[in-house]
Write a structure and sequence with these properties.
Distance between the termini: 77 Å
Structural class: alpha+beta
Shape: elongated
Helix content: 40-55%
């Protein structure tokens, strides 16, 4: 038991920590725990360990700083303790019972009792181990374990993948990078406007990266903040969408996902984007969004081939300067049309 002031401070800290995890990583970490396993690392160990058994995703909210805290259930499934299950399997050769379908009903006390009794039977040969039917609220994170499980299940496929072999510096791997990638100076000649689907402005270095991606090259796009990496990623996604490809865009930080998603939404591609793993991507939300998009009617657009060809013909006209090959674009080209560019290749 805590005094009201101390309890409020703890709840505030829990709410802040869970919101920070959602904002930075898109991962829910706040759970109500039902039941704990009391266990010991060895027979002679005197240090008991309490591990949660059933975790229910929740969130903490309040209307204002003076209002009481409200604990609300998230629209997500109840989780077992995956970390504990893996540890027991590896170190003690124990298998925790699987969750049943009716585990989604938090108020079903009979289910909890059955589940805890099954665990108690599986540990009956271990001295001092027991299941404690207690309830607690706290933050827990399992995203790295899920990644670890996927790596274990896909070990053979990963070991055979060319990209993974390249990262591991496999000397037997032959480079399969495309050999026809255009240089900066060749982009206008080798990339036809009718086959270019950029939704955002791109300079020559960004355009080159987009061409490399669409031709199947694997590469690292590096650059300081503000140099257009998210802009380039949005263009790459648009290019693949135009040719009927599916793109999985992942990031450790949720903010990076949101920036690219916002750019795609602003350019009318919202119906092609599905947030399938974030704090807003609940099961019901994902299913509803899929249903909505599958029911959309086909859209028809005007043929802009002639306009693209006209714009493509403008590019050579932007090359000026007495044989010195100065290329103008954007604001420079507009200044040239206004007669502000001087014969000496500078601004008057």
């Amino acid at each position: 038991d805590f005094p009201d002031e101390k309890l409020s401070a703890r709840l505030k800290r829990l709410a802040m920590n869970s919101r920070e995890a959602l904002a930075e990583q898109g991962v829910a970490t706040l759970y109500i725990v039902f039941g704990f396993l009391r266990w010991f690392e060895s027979i002679d160990s005197k240090d008991e360990i309490l591990s949660p058994l059933l975790l229910v995703p929740v969130r903490l909210e309040r209307d204002n700083v003076e209002a009481p805290w409200k604990l609300l259930a998230e629209d997500e499934d109840i989780l077992p303790n995956h970390s504990l299950a893996q540890l027991l399997a590896d170190d003690f050769k124990l298998q925790l019972p699987m969750l049943e379908d009716e585990a989604g009903n938090v108020e079903d006390t009979n289910y909890r009792t059955r589940y805890f009794e099954e665990i108690q039977r599986s540990i009956r040969h271990l001295l001092r181990w027991e299941v404690q039917d207690k309830v607690a609220l706290g933050t827990f994170s399992f995203q790295k374990l899920a990644m670890w499980e996927d790596l274990g299940k896909s070990r053979d496929r990963i070991a055979c993948h060319d990209l993974c072999r390249a990262i591991a510096r496999d000397p037997t791997l032959e480079s399969r990078q495309p050999k026809d990638l255009p240089e900066d100076s060749e982009l206008d000649q080798r990339t036809h406007p009718s086959k270019t689907f950029h939704i955002l402005d791109a300079d020559s270095s960004q355009h080159k990266a987009i061409c490399a991606a669409t031709r199947g090259a694997s590469f690292v796009l590096d650059g300081p903040p503000g140099t257009g990496k998210s802009q380039t990623i949005a263009n790459i996604i648009a290019e693949f969408l135009a040719i009927g490809k599916t793109v999985l865009f992942v990031s450790e930080k949720a903010a990076a996902l949101e920036v690219v998603q916002r750019r795609l939404h602003e350019k009318g591609l919202a119906d092609f984007c599905l947030a399938c793993h974030s704090h807003t991507a609940h099961n019901g939300t994902v299913v509803a969004e899929l249903g909505r998009c599958l029911g959309l009617k086909q859209e028809n657009y005007a043929d802009v081939t002639e306009e693209l060809q006209r714009l493509d013909g403008v590019c050579p006209a932007n090359r000026v300067g007495g044989g010195r090959g100065v290329t103008l674009s954007g604001s420079d080209a507009r200044l040239l049309r206004k007669g502000i560019w001087t014969k000496r290749g500078g601004f008057s």
